[in-house]
Amino acid sequence: MIPVRCISCGKVVSAYFDEYQNRTAEGEDPKVVLDDLGVNRYCCRRMLISHVETW
Amino acid sequence: MEIDVKKKQENELVFIIRDSDLSFANAIRRICMMEVPKIAIEDVHMIKNESAMFDEVLAHRLGLVPLFSDSESAEALLIPSECDCEDQCPKCSVSLVLRKKGPGVVYTKDLSSEDSKIKPVHDTIPLLKLMEDQEVELEATARLGIGMDHAKWEPTTACAYKHYPHITIDEKCDQCQKCADACPRGVLEFDEKTNQIKVVDLENCSMCKSCVRVCDHKYITIGHKDSDFIFTIETDGSIPPEEVLIKACDVLSNKADKIITFCEGGS
Ligand code: SF4
Ligand code: SF4
Ligand SMILES: [Zn+2]
Ligand SMILES: [Zn+2]
């Protein structure tokens, strides 16, 4: 499961996780999706980009 | 002291403080992060948890979920240490219930609060996953607290200031434009009309000095104003940023009052 908040700054990144996954699965560029969701700092962006859902 | 609001959004406030000093800006920053009370889940009573997630992990996730509260219901709540009850009572706590049967992902929208005015900011935070026939049932108690005790009670996410940048370009500059090309933030631009390098977006300058490094004769210098700051308060949605700032100022003036009474011989 994705951590509720960004580990570095505390932004609630998990709230955007489903939308991020759905939109990137449809082939949208992750950069565009992240900008659109307002996930601007790179600490928060890596939370979504690098997350692997294992269970 | 002068304050100039630059950007105001639901969860973000950017403003410039002029004619102030570093210690004041830092005091405000630290109080915004650490001493402005907000509501977060503190105790979780697990009635049933058949998921693969440990109780502790789930409780921790619940604690980090930001809870929105209008200022009235938050102010009506007492800080647990100031309440005269032994453990918990409706005056100092709010309870939220989660009851869900699998299969599926459980989201914050499944949390139901006893007080309709105190509820999760986001509906879409995944809390745990349930397989076929698994069930979860719990009661969580939210209380007021401050960031000094636990990060879940920090109302701010990014809360920071930077010095107001000050860029000077020497008259001897030969307009080679190297600095404008090197700037990663589009602060400098070459003006075709006047044939000069111009500062177009001063407040965006991060003072990285990339421009200074590429200038052969150091005609450009980056400095800052000691008394001016660009302040950003971003919150997690539980309290609006203006309110965080106002409450932080209250806390600071209370502290100052305490020092004054102490100095005057009180206690
Ligand atoms: S210090 Fe950095 S951001 Fe500022 S003008 Fe120079 S290159 Fe641009
Ligand atoms: S790099 Fe130096 S000399 Fe060239 S335009 Fe910028 S300030 Fe002038
Ligand atoms: Zn972050
Ligand atoms: Zn009580």
UniProtKB/TrEMBL annotation, chain A:
Reaction catalyzed: RNA(n) + a ribonucleoside 5'-triphosphate = RNA(n+1) + diphosphate
Residues that, per the record, bind Zn(2+): 6, 9, 43-44
Gene Ontology cellular-component terms listed: cytoplasm; DNA-directed RNA polymerase complex
Cofactor(s) demanded: Zn(2+)
EC id: 2.7.7.6
Pfam families: RNA_pol_N
Location in the cell: Cytoplasm
Role played: DNA-dependent RNA polymerase (RNAP) catalyzes the transcription of DNA into RNA using the four ribonucleoside triphosphates as substrates.
Subunit composition and interactions: Part of the RNA polymerase complex.
Protein name: DNA-directed RNA polymerase subunit Rpo10
